[in-house]
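User: Predict the structure for this protein chain, please.
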Amino acid sequence: MISSSLPGTIGIALSGGVDSATAAALLLDQGVAVQGFFMLLLPESGEQAAKAQAVADQLGIPLHLVDLREEFRQQVIAAFAAAYCQGLTPNPCILCNRLIKFGLLFEAMAAQGMEAMATGHYARTKDGCLRRGLDPGKDQSYFLCRLSAAQLERLILPLGTWRKSEVFARAAELGFSQFKTGGESQDVCFLAGQDLTSFLRKEGLESCGGEIVTADGRVLGRHQGCWKYTVGQRRGLGLPDATPWYVTGIDAGSNRVIAGKNEELFRRELLLAEVEWHIPPPEPWQGQVQLRSHHQAAEARAVPAENGCWRVCFDEPQRAVTPGQFAVFYEDDRVAGSGIIQQMPFSK
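Assistant: Here is the predicted structure, written as structure tokens:
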């Protein structure tokens, strides 16, 4: 049982994959009127659209194609490339979820008379709050952290209490033979098998040589574009030594890549900007903070800082704190808020 009070007509974002297909089937099992919607985001979306149409046909529901290619390019891909120019490592999926999937796509659903929106994300909503999915290996609440209260209010997540293995089993019962156990979609859809450097070159980022330096300014070598690096990266530095060198920072303003040893990757404190809270936070706030999608959330406390920022201090130092990524505040399984990790001052 998903809910005893589902809206009468629900639009589901169909990707052509097992998760959204199974989510749609679960809604149909509840006797809900369901219509499918597929986002055209990339020039080469045709093959995936065909897979979504096959799923819709098998479920016996209509499928609407929503062309968001121009909006996706302007609001997600352009912002993604611009962040790398600034020495940041962005998370385009979080941005896309807020602006495109749960923004423009839902507007298209509402125009077709849909009263709510469903997706195949592994997360839950309860009492207006976003919560972790019950499958710890698949929880996707991190990627939904920037959804507004209005977006959460109209959102239905049928897979929030399911495990991935159960979803594959249910899909097999439904006769979806095209889904293979263990298959997963790629998080950054627009890379589509390209390496990041090649993609960013196509977006207009150019090689620009600069220095690789230690935190205290000692020159170690040269790079051909600081946008080719991210904090925690080991490969591509070309710095032979008895122990590996890692990227510990990127100073885009000075076109420098900061390198150090593994122990220099650990930080106890970070600064967050553009912080949004789903609940009024106490000061100081205490709970767990997750720094990226596969990071194990860690105990921390947060206090307001200058210019609307919040300063986060972890009980234990965390590895590879990466500017541009989102840090998400959790209270037990509930998403309390989130912010964007800022650059820390560089040594000169």
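The chain has three domains: 9-191, 207-260, 266-341.
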